Amino acid sequence: MTADMIFVFTLLGVTIALFLSNKIRMDTIALLVVIVLALSGIITPSEAVSGFGNSVVIMIAGLFVIGEGLFKTGVAASAGNWLLKVGGDSEQRLLLFLLPVVALLSAFMSSTGAVALLIPVVLSMARKSGMQPSRLLMPLAFAALIGGMLTLIGTPPNIIVSAQMREAGFEPFGFFSFTPIGLAILIVGTVYLVFVARHLLPKTEIRDPDNSHPSLIEFSERYATHHQLHKLIIQPESQLAFHTLADLGLRSEYEVTVVGIQRKGTWLSSLMPVLANTQMRHLDILWAYGDEANIHRLCQALHLRSLDFHDAELAKVNETFGLAEVLLPPSSTLINLSLKDCRFREKHNLSVIGVRRNRTPLNTEFSHTKLETGDTLLLAGSWQHIQQLEQHRDFVILETPAEMQEIPATAEKAPIALIITLGLLITMTFGFIANITAILIAALLMILTKCLSLNDAYKSLNASSLVLIAGMLPLALAMEKSGALSYVVNLLANEYGHASPLMLCAGFFLLTSLLSQFISNTATTVLIAPIALTVAQMLGIQPEPFMITVAIAASTAFATPIASPVNTLVVEPGQYRFADFAKVGIPLQLIALLITLILLPIFFPF
């Protein structure tokens, strides 16, 4: 063993120890590795920082931008809503739908790309359902890695072993040659991740600054309006039809505030906020705030009928309009005016549905109450108008609800974002152009079509994940150039040289899986596949089971966060520690090993 080998092994050991200690941030450790390698002389300083220009890092950065575009346009939220609808509020049921979806995507495109695109979806689901991202993201990453085992193009190791077979004069693997073993691992792995791993996954706090905002329900309870939202239909004989709210003075006469309208049973832009000049029609459905007595009085006087509504309808309403709390400063021009006098809805396109004075809600009859300095108002209206509140100097925004963070900033661009993403998936599946080119084009199109702004694109880049990946790539290069990789391979190959074919396959699986935890699975496969092929030829047995074993094992990068960019991507949003991956990943590796050894003799006889 040379001095360079000893140095690299020592550096690898220290790096792993620091990761396990969880005392230093992982991206900081990665930067330290870069500095040490640059000073060591084993690789050049240029090679030590080459990871920051690596195509994998650039691809992941582009996928962050695409994912943010899906979030800003509401596509991610819509996908999350669908999954929540079919999965409900059950963590297990949700994973049973989510994991096959990401595995199927990974079977035809980059697993890194599939995870990067789905992370915003999962985070959106977690926020809406109250689930912890740490309970969803690691299973998502592992399912993506397993998905790569399903087809020839699912992951580079599959393509490499097939090419090795062709070069050696054997029949290369077909598109679905890997499917029987990969599918079995996916089925058993999904059961493990859904029903067993949940006891091993960490329960971390949801570290999201948006959670400091109260919810819409909390706002309503604060102003005693939580039971005052009603759904009313304008009957044919109602005199409200063909009039505006201002014409009939509903607020001043009945102490009822109408904030939204639904027409002819279809949503107008999901839900149209009612403005001062909005004209009512027969059979319009109105969403209004008011207490039971005033609502009953209004219905009797104007021939309206109250309708029941369910949670799904309320969720739809909350996507279009919401609430905000504002404070009246001494300089406000609203001081000493009543809501009727200041014509609040006409000026601001928002309705006041609650007033608090000295932290106490006023009763519902506050239309004629003169406003005072320090009063806080609860405003209701469209999210668009709520977002414009900052432009007004008559009041100071105290709080906006947490749900406001979920409102897509560019919802009208959702079809464009979806087309761009589908085009990317098709391009990556059929290989029309290089993946990195396709991803960069898609990211640029997201910006040029205004699905997100350039500033939002920069903010979307998860710097800690990118630095971690870029910093660890040179370590794999140092292991290769120092001869450390070849030393390990030859040492273990000699130990298993005289074992039975099945035991040899087990040995190659363990070796490949072990190395894949610290260097790229592509590099591992390139190194070990020729050795496995040579051993099979020396023993006079079929090489297919050995090559399949190497390819499957290379995709079992479950035990460390640096084993694959897929794992690294979920570290920050999931708040995982280094040891969390080993705790959940090692049992999954053993499951994959056991299934492979059982099925190899059936589908690929020796």
From TrEMBL:
One of its GO terms (cellular component) is plasma membrane. The keyword Repeat applies. The chain crosses the membrane at residues 29-49, 56-77, 97-124, 136-155, 175-197, 416-449, 461-479, 491-512, 518-539, 546-564, 584-604. Its main location: membrane. Residues 217-304, 310-395 form the RCK C-terminal domain. GO terms for biological process: potassium ion transport. Keywords: Membrane, Repeat, Transmembrane, Transmembrane helix, Transport. It is a multi-pass membrane protein. It is found in: Membrane. GO terms for molecular function: monoatomic cation transmembrane transporter activity. PANTHER family: BASIC AMINO ACID ANTIPORTER YFCC-RELATED, RESPONSE REGULATOR. This is Na(+)/dicarboxylate symporter. The lineage of its organism: Bacteria, Pseudomonadati, Pseudomonadota, Gammaproteobacteria, Oceanospirillales. The gene is sdcS.
